[in-house]
């Protein structure tokens, strides 16, 4: 049975199939018989992409991955429906595709979606430091940030809603000691995390401080780690993928979040955080693109770069805190083989380490 899901004014095909994450090929073949009826089952090849730490991603093709028509099948991670609005994700896919900033989405199914394969390679962490590439990323983000909400409706930044939702989920899922101390991990490897009271106070402190900063609300990716950036060297372009967290948010959050991702995911190393010189160059390329895409004078002043730099430093704190909460949740629910405990500790430690320094920066 198929039905339609409405998003961004266009109906999306919904195929009523559940795909087993442990043995996905049978379900995928049934799905492809609808999407690619001309493909013969015996000719279909599948490649599992292992970069993601939330979902499973499988590329399906006949002949070569580089030929048009290749389909990506994404199986949602365990319990991710707790903190990802899947209908909203579909709408973001359709909006970004309509503005030529993202791939076409083909269909949804019970536990995932299918969409167009974006040609290129997943960006390597080291390439983030390369000027010719980071300027492309900055320009692409500026273009996405310029996309206006349909019908000019007022939009609110999603940050505080998302953060308080994560915190409530953490409160209900993490075990605590009689003294109120929280722990994550197995009984053999318990990790101490800040108490609910401490985390609540920190969230209120962040909200109080950052709400005073005049950062525009724009359409953000909100999760721009290297594995969500596809680099096409031949065409000299980058595209962003995976819109689970895409939504309207503070401009400086999206940039600060991306800068945090320079530290990596598997082995978080904040020595790789971008220098002031790199950030200044990145932010200049971003502002040129953002101004051009919003139809304004493209000249960028040193004062504008400095102001945005300070805003980005401050909002990077919110990014560290948010993904720290997310990783605590993932350590509780995810079936993916990844050390979420260590990741949560790294993100929250960096937040506490930088808080005073970044809060102390004066905004013009």
From TrEMBL:
Pfam family, one: Choline_kinase
InterPro entries cross-referenced by the UniProt entry: Kinase-like_dom_sf
Keywords: Lipid biosynthesis, Lipid metabolism, Phospholipid biosynthesis, Phospholipid metabolism
EC class of the enzyme, as a word: transferase
Molecular-function GO terms, alphabetical: ethanolamine kinase activity
Keyword DNA-binding included in the entry's annotation: no
Pathway linked to the protein: Phospholipid metabolism; phosphatidylethanolamine biosynthesis; phosphatidylethanolamine from ethanolamine: step 1/3
Superkingdom of origin: Eukaryota
GO cellular component, as recorded: cytoplasm
GO biological process terms on file: phosphatidylethanolamine biosynthetic process
EC number assigned by the record: 2.7.1.82
Family recorded in the similarity comment: Belongs to the choline/ethanolamine kinase family.
Protein name: ethanolamine kinase
Originating species: Astatotilapia calliptera (Eastern happy)
Phylogenetic placement of the source organism: Eukaryota, Metazoa, Chordata, Craniata, Vertebrata
């Amino acid at each position: 049975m198929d039905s339609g899901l409405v998003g961004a004014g266009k109906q999306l095909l919904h195929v009523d199939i559940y795909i087993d994450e442990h043995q996905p090929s049978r379900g995928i073949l049934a799905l492809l018989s609808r999407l690619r009826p001309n493909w013969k089952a015996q000719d279909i090849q599948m490649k599992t992409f292992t970069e993601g730490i939330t979902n499973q991603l499988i590329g399906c093709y006949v002949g070569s991955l580089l030929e048009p028509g290749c389909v990506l099948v994404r199986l949602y991670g365990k319990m991710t429906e707790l903190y990802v609005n899947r209908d909203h994700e579909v709408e973001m896919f359709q909006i970004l595709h309509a503005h030529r900033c993202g791939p076409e989405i083909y269909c949804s199914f019970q536990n995932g979606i299918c969409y167009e394969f974006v040609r290129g390679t997943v960006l390597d962490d080291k390439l983030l430091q390369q000027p010719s590439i980071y300027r492309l990323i900055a320009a692409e983000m500026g273009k996405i940030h310029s996309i206006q909400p349909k019908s000019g409706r007022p939009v609110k930044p999603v940050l505080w809603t998302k953060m308080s939702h994560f915190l409530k989920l953490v409160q209900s899922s993490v075990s605590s000691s009689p003294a109120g101390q929280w722990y994550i991990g197995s009984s053999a490897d318990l990790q101490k995390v800040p108490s609910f009271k401490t985390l609540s106070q920190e969230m209120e402190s962040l909200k109080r401080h950052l709400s005073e900063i005049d950062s525009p609300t724009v359409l953000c990716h909100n999760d721009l780690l290297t594995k969500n950036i596809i680099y096409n060297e031949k065409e000299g372009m980058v595209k962003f993928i995976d819109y689970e967290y895409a939504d309207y948010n503070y401009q400086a959050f999206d940039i600060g979040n991306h800068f945090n991702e320079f530290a990596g995911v598997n082995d978080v190393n904040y020595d790789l955080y971008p220098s002031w010189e790199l950030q200044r160059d990145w932010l200049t390329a971003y502002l040129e693109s953002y101004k051009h895409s919003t139809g304004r004078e493209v000249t960028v002043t040193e004062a504008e770069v400095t102001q945005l730099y300070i805003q980005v430093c401050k909002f990077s704190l919110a990014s560290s805190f948010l993904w720290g909460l997310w990783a605590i949740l993932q350590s509780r629910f995810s079936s993916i083989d990844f050390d979420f405990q260590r990741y949560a500790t790294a993100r929250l430690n960096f937040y506490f380490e930088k808080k005073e320094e970044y809060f102390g920066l004066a905004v013009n």
